């Protein structure tokens, strides 16, 4: 009897697998219906104008007559229509925007922009230090000073010093450039600020 129950249990399992098998394989198939190759394309009718707030009714005859009368007015009178309507409808007057303290670039006028550029050229803030010459006896001291403020290796600093005249520091402030020149002078070299 136990054998028959076990046998019945075994026979039930394959039928469940038969049911679940095809369902799993169907889940990988596309869910859409293929397009009919002989079907014609649908043509949609678009409105001639796009109105974001819905369709507007055409203007009335009175509005059209008013627009024609305004268009027939001379230019001087047409200019007066806007301010007159603003007063009549009690719209607030448009205030000019203050541009004080704003950088408008070249919009401030040609003369104003050129004076600012001249001032910037006159006030130089970045300087270059150039090594002009050095004593042959003080070559090692000059190389040590160059290494101190350029963070170069020994070989690079030696090659730099041997190729005089050469720029040794670029884009430094006035005080820093004077400090470098004094140190090189104390070591036995001659440097200038450009």
Automatic annotation (TrEMBL):
GO biological process, one term: translation
Ranges of residues in domain Large ribosomal subunit protein bL12 C-terminal: 127-190
InterPro entries noted in UniProt: Ribosomal_bL12, Ribosomal_bL12_C, Ribosomal_bL12_C/ClpS-like
Keywords: Ribonucleoprotein, Ribosomal protein
Domain of life: Eukaryota
Ranges that cross the membrane: none
Family of the protein in this entry: Belongs to the bacterial ribosomal protein bL12 family.
UniProt name for this protein: Large ribosomal subunit protein bL12c
Species: Ilex paraguariensis (yerba mate)
């Amino acid at each position: 009897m136990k054998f028959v129950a076990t046998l019945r249990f075994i026979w039930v399992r394959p039928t469940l697998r038969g049911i679940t098998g095809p369902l799993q394989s169907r889940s990988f198939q596309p869910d859409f219906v293929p397009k009919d190759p002989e079907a014609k394309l649908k043509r949609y009718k678009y409105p001639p104008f796009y109105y974001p707030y819905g369709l507007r009714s055409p203007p009335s005859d009175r509005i059209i007559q008013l627009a024609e009368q305004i268009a027939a007015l001379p230019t001087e009178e047409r200019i007066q229509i806007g301010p007159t309507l603003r007063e009549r409808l009690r719209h607030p007057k448009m205030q000019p925007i203050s541009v004080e303290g704003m950088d408008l670039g070249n919009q401030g006028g040609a003369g104003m922009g050129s004076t600012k550029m001249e001032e910037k050229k006159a006030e130089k803030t970045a300087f270059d230090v150039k090594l002009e010459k050095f004593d042959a006896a003080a070559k090692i001291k000059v190389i040590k000073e160059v290494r101190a403020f350029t963070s170069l290796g020994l070989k690079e600093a030696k090659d730099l010093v041997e190729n005089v005249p050469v720029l040794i520091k670029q884009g430094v402030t006035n005080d820093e450039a004077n400090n470098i020149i004094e140190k090189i002078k104390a070591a036995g070299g001659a440097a200038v600020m450009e």
